Automatic annotation (TrEMBL):
The keyword Transferase does not apply. CDD domains: CE4_DAC2. This is Divergent polysaccharide deacetylase. Residues 1-17 have a biased composition (Basic and acidic residues). Keywords: Membrane, Transmembrane, Transmembrane helix. It comes from the Bacteria. Residues 65-80 have a biased composition (Low complexity). It comes from Desulfocurvibacter africanus PCS. Residues 461-483 have a biased composition (Polar residues). SUPFAM superfamilies: Glycoside hydrolase/deacetylase.
């Protein structure tokens, strides 16, 4: 009691106790602050590592290229769910064999540089006229040699400066040379583009009407969309374009049966999109149900039989990948014999310029068609529209052409625009109708002029002619359940009646 009284009466003891208490509280507060700071630093470090580990996204002004691994273009806002295309394919399949360094890849990057240059100087595709397109070959690659007329609305020097900058960025192996108003672009010593620069018209007269259709049958262009089988919505939108489109469907895709039924309802032709071994295998896997050069004859026939069982309405088969398999004469002979026995034709996607499909098909008596233009190696609407115009040029020159695209939203958007503005001298037709030749004069033979009215330049013959074999299909056996080639005729679906999707019997 006395001790307690002494403590209360001693001010030094009271101050000492109070100081120790304050010091204890200060230590506790400092510890808590340190803990909070550490947690904040840890969270910041985690966020930074997440950002650094993510793949870089291109700027909006950078080229937007198709990503083979995902089946969708790279770049902000490039995929559209409303067009039925997911950002990532369900099984991350490759839509096509990855591009390799060479004239074909360089030529398409030059195309991209030209398009981006036009955008940068405030112009669009209406400034470009296609004078001539030719298919040339270099090793296993084929590429399009192009002569284009470009109307310049602004300064020539600015156009050249921007074009040089884009070539350095997109196609560093390309060289640009000038000869007055003509530019020549070469890659690996091969000329890919000849550009004729033109001054704008001196008057404000409205543009001339489109050229009238040539006398006789029109040039014919068949559109094929490969790699269908996942998005039913995309396929439905495709069927409503108002033109015939061949549906090339993966046999093992998630919705292959539903999309095949949709195509049948819409009177669209169906192809088996048959996976085949690429030269880059096993790095690039063609997928389930593929054919390889190591297979014997019985195994190849079994694969075709199993895959065709999914599509009894198929009129033909085309290759998915296949740059190695289509060069193999033994394997392709088995394929052609099997197709002939079933009354089907073969569309060669020409993933290799050394494909033996045409020669082997001719020997076997199997009808064969060949791809002329890939539409969407660059998944950009303007780039695809330019490819469609090149396909028109090929059709006008040879009487017919085949263009192959893929299920990108940009491809659907470009096709919608093309349907409304396509050359009236070119008719969109079913693929199988190209097996039956239609006699007609070509644009050059009739007028000596191009689509734009300019006189065609005298050019050397291509290294290898772009022929279109015209082999009449043989009558299928009576027991064959596949639809005969060319039937039924294309009838566009009614806009007022939705397409009903029913399972195959």
């Amino acid at each position: 009691m006395a001790g307690g009284q002494d403590d209360r009466e001693n001010p030094d003891l009271r101050e000492s106790s109070s100081g120790e208490a304050r010091q204890g509280r200060t230590v506790r507060i400092s510890f808590r602050l340190a803990a909070l700071i550490c947690l904040g630093l840890l969270a910041g470090l985690t966020w930074a590592l997440t950002i650094l580990s993510a793949p870089p996204r291109p700027l909006a002004s950078e080229p937007v290229l198709a990503s083979p691994a995902s089946g969708s273009p790279l770049g902000p806002g490039s995929a559209s769910e409303s067009d039925g295309m997911a950002v990532r394919d369900v099984q991350a399949r490759l839509y096509e064999e990855p591009a390799r360094d060479g004239p074909a890849e360089a030529a398409r990057m030059v195309d991209l540089a030209i398009l981006e240059t036009l955008k940068a100087v405030g112009q669009d595709l209406s400034s470009v006229s296609i004078l001539e397109v030719r298919t040339l070959y270099s090793g296993r690659e084929s590429y399009l040699q192009q002569t284009l007329a470009i109307r310049l609305d602004g300064e020539r020097a600015r156009f050249l400066g921007v074009l040089n900058a884009w070539l350095a960025k997109a196609a560093p192996d390309a060289t640009l040379s000038e000869d007055h108003d003509r530019l020549s672009i070469e890659v690996y010593g091969q000329q890919t583009h000849s550009l004729l620069l033109q001054a704008p018209p001196t008057t404000d007269l409205p543009p001339p009407p489109p050229p009238p259709a040539l006398p006789g049958a029109k040039a014919r262009l068949a559109i094929v969309i490969d790699d269908l089988g996942e998005s039913v919505e995309f396929a439905s939108n495709l069927s409503r374009l108002g033109i015939p489109v061949a549906f090339a469907i993966w046999p093992s895709a998630s919705n292959s049966q539903r999309i095949a039924a949709l195509a049948r309802k819409a009177n669209m032709e169906v192809l088996l999109h048959q996976p085949m071994e690429p030269r880059s295998y096993p790095e690039d896997d063609p997928g389930k149900g593929a054919m390889f050069i190591s297979m014997n004859e019985a195994a190849i026939r079994a694969v075709i039989m199993e895959n065709l069982a999914h599509f009894p309405m198929a009129v033909g088969l085309n290759n998915h990948m296949g740059s190695r398999f289509t060069e193999d004469r033994r394997g392709m002979s088995v394929v052609m014999d099997e197709l002939r026995s079933r009354g089907l034709f073969y569309l060669d996607s020409m993933t290799s310029a050394k494909s033996v499909g045409t020669s082997v098909g001719k020997k076997a008596g199997t009808p064969v068609l060949r791809r002329d233009v890939f539409l969407d190696n660059v998944a950009d609407v303007d780039a695809i529209l330019l490819q469609l115009r090149k396909a028109e040029n090929v059709a006008l020159k040879h009487g017919q052409a085949v263009a192959i695209g893929h299920p990108y939203p940009e491809t659907l958007q470009a096709l919608r625009a093309w349907v409304a503005q396509r050359d009236t001298r070119v008719e969109a037709v079913t693929l199988s109708s190209l097996l039956h030749p239609a006699a007609r004069p070509t644009a050059a033979a009739t007028t000596g002029k191009s689509r734009s009215g300019a006189k065609l330049p005298q050019a050397k013959q291509p290294l290898s002619p772009n022929t279109h074999p015209q082999v009449q299909p043989k009558t299928p056996p009576a027991q064959q359940s596949h639809t005969p080639i060319g039937e039924p005729p294309y009838l566009p679906p009614s806009e007022s009646q939705p397409i009903e999707i029913t399972p195959l019997p």
